[in-house]
Amino acid sequence: MVVSGRKAKDIGRLAQGFSLIAKEFAKRSPTLQSAKNGDFQALLKNAVVSATDISGLTKGTLHSQSTHNNPSNPNNADSAANNPDSVVYFTHDEPPPPQRQPEQPLPPPENNAALSAVKVEVIGSSAQQQLEPQTQSQSPESQPRAPPRRKPRERRVPSIPFSRALGFAGLGAGLAWGTLQESTKRLIYGTPLSSAGNQSVVSPFLSPQNAERLALALCRMRGAALKLGQMLSIQDESLVPAPILAALDIVRQGADVMPRAQLNQVLDAELGPGWSSKLTSFDYEPLASASIGQVHRAVTKDGMDVAIKIQYPGVADSISSDLENVKLLLDYTNLIPKGLYLESAMKVAKEELSRECNYELEAESQKRFHALLSNAQGFYVPLVVDDISSKRVLTTELVSGIPIDKVALLNQETRNYVGRKLLELTLKELFVFRFMQTDPNWSNFLYDEATNTINLIDFGAARDYPKTFVDDYLRMVVACANGDRYTVIEMSKRLGFLAGMESEVMLEAHVQAGFVVGLPFAKPGGYDFRTSNITQSISNLGATMLQHRLTPPPDEAYSLHRKLAGAFLACIKLGAVVPCRELLLEVYERHQFGDDGGATLSSGLP
Description:
By secondary structure, the protein is α+β, with helices and mostly antiparallel strands.
């Protein structure tokens, strides 16, 4: 009876959360307001369409991706030939140009945030699954089994509060039904046993079916809800339960795509009805579809190949409400550990997403990086095309190259070179520029073998860091490299990672985590990331820190640590050998610390 009472309580909490979501959106919805004014036809139409499509009762139009979305396909050089119906040519009183033959295959350029690069072929449900190169030569025993591939569907993006309210309501109802099904099954057949003892065994909320419902709903909703799901999908099992990670791999494969009519509406609204006069061709088949928008290939009148990012309608205006209601669902389903400080994470996510939805800001960040790296060997930042850009549309030069996971298949010398350049760039962004592109997606770094250059794309997540923060953070990194416990603790307090009243258990876990991260910088010579167990060590310490943490990390840490972890994971994926300490010391010795009286380390540099 105790077990049954607990399950009834869980279902009641979920139903209460669903009710709160519906009530909150009902208060805000302009569509309901119009119904009060007598426009019941509009209310009924929106209700029927949204309730059936967004909740998943209808399936949308199955979207057949052309083969040029797969960089591994040797025939992807001619996207027009692969899918001729998707490319529209604009004559401008001249004969239509012949179908273009690109010089070399182009990988899909985007995956998250303000449209980071999407790798349609990515598989694996967690960061750990990404660490080992996935080649055909691997044995079935050594290669994780990939979850089923989800085919993207063509659906209108729900762009008003009422339609998005129904999407969350449908998700809440689906989770409640899934929980009831799982609870009933456990009552009849018993609770499944697991040697791992993870949370999914205890809570019926965390069934694989519910996890999949969550992921598919996020793909249909898109926007901030999908962005949050993509952020969760890169975590490991010490932070997020395994069934959730497995289903969120679906989220990482990309969102549903906009129908052509809705796409044209966005372009007309942002660029004016004459936008096609600036192009000779436009490919309606997206190179990528992600959380905030999708990217399309086009050719300008002067012959430049460009990538056009087009933001989903209503996404920017729904950030706050989306995050608030996702938080309600997470709270009432116990999906996130308390030690993650969800309130703080949501606050930072809201600020980051607001910036990423502003393509004018992204354009300025891209121009700034172009200037900062103009004389840097081995890097290139593509040009921005201002006259085909707006706050919701961004057009940039289309660059070629292969993402990090494809570089991992090249020779060791190339992998070492790319790994070194990526770590060099990361250190320079933080400690020299104090301006960092914080999205670590591997497809944001496209290596061009012909020029030995890394083409950098997607600057929606770029941000500045205060000098005082950068100074203390550099001191802490060097202390971690030198095994300097005292300075690690002191700098952690100054930076806000520690409150100063932590238990010895928490302090020890925090310091040891710092030493683990500092390991590549600890000794001279090349550090071999092929033998690294950094992620596993951090995972083992993570559970302790989640249990004993007294304060959330500083706001700057969320984006910064995402980028730093991405740089390490990229080097691990490449199996690169990188002289990490040499790169760190070069930055440290040239760094000009501010006059704040805190530049002394208890352990000197050799």
